[in-house]
Design goal:
Length: 228
């Protein structure tokens, strides 16, 4: 049973989220402000955070920054703001998904399940192996870990899903839409800027260790770089 940390300063919102998640079979813990959220995160080791952007004491974006220093636990942002800038900012900071209030409890549960699944099913040939390899790049599907020449690279759930999609068919060029259809396991509309934000963060993590596993074909999409 996955444990979900719900962080929102509105008790009514927390009630709605808790009821939906518990009904779906999840265990929940709750926090009404940022400082309590960080304490519960350390104490309860949740499998995912449902995190409001606007909070007293510490807001959701600051909580995300602090958590990303030490953990890649999936984060689903909640916000009453629907501007693209806010959605992109949340994803740039390390969030895995973004849901605007008011929301459908069923959609919330679907999003949580999709993020926890960490990416799509892969073709049968790839699914038979627990580790996908492409040159120096390897992806452990069981442990949900990525590495380059044995050096582990910490990824968010969505970043892992993107890389898993690319590695399932290394020679394929993925359009932005098809790449995110693979990385997200539910139907949703994602802007080009949002997709590019995920890929940019994914690239930056590998560039930090001197690797460049993803190529851009301008006007077309993305593919894995040739084996190195």
């Amino acid at each position: 049973m996955a444990r979900i940390l719900i962080v929102d300063d509105d008790p009514a919102i927390r009630d709605v989220v808790r009821f939906a998640l518990v009904k779906a079979g999840f265990e929940t813990v709750e926090a009404g402000n940022g400082r309590v959220a960080l304490e519960l995160f350390a104490a309860s080791a949740p499998d995912l955070l449902v995190l409001d952007v606007t909070l007293p004491e510490l807001d959701g974006t600051e909580i995300c920054r602090l958590i990303r220093r030490e953990s890649t636990v999936p984060i689903l942002f909640l916000s009453s703001r629907d501007e693209e800038f806010d959605r992109v900012l949340g994803l740039e900071l390390g969030g895995d998904d973004y849901l605007v209030k008011p929301f459908s409890p069923r959609e919330l549960v679907a999003r949580v399940k999709a993020v926890l699944r960490r990416g799509p099913a892969v073709p049968a040939a790839a699914a038979a192996a627990s580790v996908l390899r492409h040159g120096a790049l390897s992806l452990d599907l069981d442990l949900v870990k990525a590495s380059w020449n044995g050096c582990e690279v910490a990824l968010t759930a969505t970043e892992f899903g993107i890389l898993r999609t690319l590695m399932a068919r290394p020679g394929k060029v993925y359009s932005r839409d098809s790449l995110m259809d693979g990385a997200y396991s539910i139907e949703k509309t994602v802007s080009d800027r949002t997709i590019d934000s995920h890929v940019r963060r994914l690239r930056a993590k590998f560039e930090a260790i001197g690797a460049a596993p993803i190529e851009t074909l301008h006007g077309v999409g993305y593919k894995l770089a040739p084996c190195r």
